[in-house]
Write a structure and sequence with these properties.
The protein is α/β, with parallel strands linked by helices. It has a single domain, classed as Carbon-nitrogen hydrolase (Nitrilase/N-carbamoyl-D-aminoacid amidohydrolase, 4-Layer Sandwich). 27% of the residues lie in helices and 26% in strands. It has nine helices and 14 strands. The strands form three sheets. A six-stranded mixed β-sheet has the order 5-4-3-2-1-14. A six-stranded mixed β-sheet has the order 6-7-8-9-12-13. Strand 3 and strand 4 form a beta hairpin. The chain is globular and about 55 Å long.
Length: 281
């Protein structure tokens, strides 16, 4: 099938919200595989998993991270996902703890039926991540796939409007966001999460489909807020927010090729066409 035809077709996307266990890579990979198979059985073609889904998040030390991190794409975690994607004929985006030489990155890998496609390394590190990881050095790649043009962001990257604008300007249609959202300062626990507000705004102001897969649970005293969601390129939710505490899988149907049309707000206004690049670049 020509790429242009494939991209015009609807795509079923799934966000897997679960609770990785710190340090239990084999068990986490088993849990991931089980849930990916469930999503595939329900028709998912593009599946998004949380940040650091293979290792857990709250590291005690650099030595602990060194025992858990693996290379991409040749490490155990990456190879398990690559094999699974090829077997099921699906595309998977998952957060992974990556080691490259002597350097550690909070990364996400995209793989599909054809194997390994690419890696994104988190650019904006949150809190104690700065003790263990280096800031990403691969920029903001956009991967051209038969499903559409896919970009990746991780968690705190979503607090920076430049992340989504740069991806949109590079041609991205769908942004996959592996994340481990935590409560924000002064956040009313009963109100809509700031993370959801920010990503709804990013989807709307850039005309992008955005799929956020969060984790749940409390790890070494750090609570995570769940509330994964899948957003239309208009900014309105297609699925979610998911539970604040329970594991869940969200599903939505998107059409990546519809992005240009969704950026047209009316006969006079186009989100990209109206940009005053003569003023602000």
């Amino acid at each position: 099938m020509p790429l242009e035809t494939a991209q015009s077709n609807p795509v079923t996307i799934a966000c897997i919200q679960f609770e990785p266990k710190i340090g239990e890579v084999a068990a986490n990979l088993d849990a991931i595989e089980e849930r990916v198979r469930t999503a595939h059985a329900k028709g998912a073609q593009l599946i998004v998993l949380p940040e650091l889904a293979d290792s857990g998040y709250v590291f005690d030390s650099a030595e602990e991270l060194a025992k858990l991190a693996r290379p991409i794409p040749d490490g155990e975690s990456a190879q398990r996902l690559i094999t699974l994607a090829a077997e099921l004929d699906v595309y998977i985006v998952s957060g992974l703890a990556e080691v490259a030489g002597d350097t550690f990155y909070n990364s996400a890998m995209l793989c599909g039926p054809e194997g390994y496609i690419g890696t994104y390394r988190k650019m904006h590190l949150w809190y104690r991540e700065n003790l263990f990881f280096e800031k990403g050095d691969l920029g903001l790649p956009v991967f051209d796939t038969p499903l559409g043009k896919i970009g990746i962001a991780i968690c705190y990257d979503g607090w920076f409007p430049e992340t989504f604008r740069q991806l949109a300007m590079k041609g991205a249609e769908v942004i996959c966001v592996p994340t481990n959202w935590v409560p924000m300062p002064d956040q009313d626990p009963e109100a809509e999460a700031m993370s959801n507000i920010l990503h709804k705004a990013a989807a709307h102001s850039n005309g992008l489909f955005i799929a956020c897969a969060d984790r749940v649970g409390t790890e070494r005293g750090q609570p995570f807020i769940g509330q994964s969601l899948i957003l239309d390129a208009t900014g309105w939710p297609l699925a979610g927010p998911a539970s604040r505490e329970e594991e869940d899988i969200l599903y939505a149907v998107i059409t990546p090729s519809a992005v240009p049309a969704k950026r047209k707000l009316n006969e006079f206004n186009d989100i990209f066409g109206d940009r005053r690049s003569d003023v602000y670049g």
